[in-house]
User: What shape does this take?
Amino acid sequence: MKTLLKIFFFTLIMFGCSQNNKIQYPETRKENISDDYWDTQINDPYRWLEDDRSQETEEWVIEQNKLTYSYLEKIPFRDRLRERLTELMNYPKYGYPQKINNKYYFYKNDGLQNQSVLYELDSLTAEPTVLLDPNKLSTDGTIALSRASFSKDGKYLAYSISKSGSDWNEIFVMEVATRQLLPDHIEWVKFSGISWQGNGFYYSAYDKPELGKEYSNKNEYHKVFYHHLNDDQTQDKIVFENKEHALRNCYAGVSEDEKFLFIMETESTSGNSVWLKDLTQPKTKAKLIAPGFDSDFSVIDHYEGKIYVLTNYQAPNQQLMVVDPARPQLENWKTLIPESKHVIEDVSLVGGQLFINYLQDASNRLYAYDTSGQLLHEIKLPTIGTVGIAGKYDDNEAFYMFTSYTYPSTIYRYDVAENKAELFRKSEISFNTDDFISEQIFYTSKDGTQIPMSIIYKKGLKKNGKNPTMLYGYGGFNISLLPGFSVGRIPFLEQGGVYAIANLRGGGEYGESWHKAGTKMQKQNVFDDFIAAAEYLITEKYTSSKKLAINGGSNGGLLVGACMTQRPDLFAVAIPEVGVLDMLRYQKFTIGWAWATDYGTAEDSQEMFEYLLGYSPLHNLKAGTTYPATLITTGDHDDRVVPAHSFKFAATLQEHHSGHTPTLIRIDVKAGHGAGKPISKVIDAQTDVWAFVMKNLGMKYK
Assistant: This one.
């Protein structure tokens, strides 16, 4: 690191000043650093910002936040927007009950609690008692409950916590009856489940990282451990590791009857191998039953002598297969429910029946099958939307949760044998959903592909090209954007805004072929799909380029960064959140190497390097260009997509931007990639994003 230089901070131009005056940004030091890629020199003058724990970077963060909050504080309706969001958030929110040893457990947030509380019920009509309240683990709500797993007999609860939004977890164990903690404490857990078997559980972890590099160093040599209750972590037995491949992850799961251990090994975010160990034969070793990483395998459970696996092996839209534990090699697997034109998104084994959740044009349909693969019936849902069902394989009682863009999350109690559902919990939000419309349309992308898009707006909308509009997208990692109710969108919709969600290629809405069409050398399809969505909204007079904002997070932050650099003329506002913005170096940090199956890397080939360079947001910012008003957001503890992406992008954007619109960065302190963020921080972040969007779209808060 070079000698620290002082970062200069200039006063923000007041809102009432002439628009000919540009915002004066903090001066960001530049270094003479470059890398050689296939005989091409690529400059990286802000490399020093990758050291997110250095004093100079911390000073830069402070000055950037001063500038950003100085701007945001002057937005006249910001406080009223915060009040409305707080009011809307303040209603009870429930998770569906989980039945363990004749008791029920569920999560509830009273309204504005920073973290949801885990409750215990003796029966569904009994008064709930608190089992675990994560709000008591920190004064500011930044310690979150990541995962909770009960032992088979319900005597113990193993749970993991995350601090400040980091992916790093710590595991503790509680005796349920007494609410007392056992001495067990496990550290450096990441990308892990907690799977009980006998008097202990399996989990995944890394070696202790280098001091000071916990949130940035590459994660290597993932391992599966078995922890016996009351033992020190140093006594935990390594169950699975791959010493020959540092960049692989492994995840352990135990069948509900505790007869089998399944280990999923991955090289990236898609494709996995499956290892099987018979736990009734302790001396036997795990067998590799599904080798390679070309297909996805998701073990549902073991039931009545059969192992059920959902997979896209030889079936891009997924099929359900059965495995004989006596002959478990892949060549012996049998198809139970074949693939169809609609993707099988999920399978649940409840009450001796298989519940198949299909994706049909980016929404769910739920069907019940018997274990021989015969269709029994469809579970009728309230409208087009998203559903998830949960229960035990040997219990007739199940619960499912349904939601849609204009239908708040609602829980139903379901009798499996009778195929009867009854309302269990209805949302108490003080908001009239009947005032709003959700419609799905299909538009044509650049290459002629039909892309679905959902558009939500207030009844009585006039298509005059003047409506402020937010376009949201993701487009990656086989993740589907499905209908779901969001309180955070309501203030924008109430003020006459239009909210659109595009189901881009790269996602999982139409199976693996849809996913692959937005990866590596086809990644530009995703950006073309998003740009075409914007053009559709303008052509159909929902909005205009001067009234259009775009938003996305993580891989969606990459989407926003790529589109605002490729078509800066098309958008008025851009909000790249926790984005992957440096496509030449993303794989060098934490878990970034695992994204290579979607992105490729600059080291793969000259062709791949040139393709990545062609759309990498950081490297496509051009001096003298007018960019949309931009608010970049990140968290100082984000160890999924490290904040260096956002830091370097912000510094370069501020250097090159020639317009008068603000290009700012909001860096959340004690916050990570998003999971476990306390409600107070959620409200703060949404307030600032919507205030920035609404001001720069010329909206007045009524």
Notes: The first helix runs from residue 55 to 73.
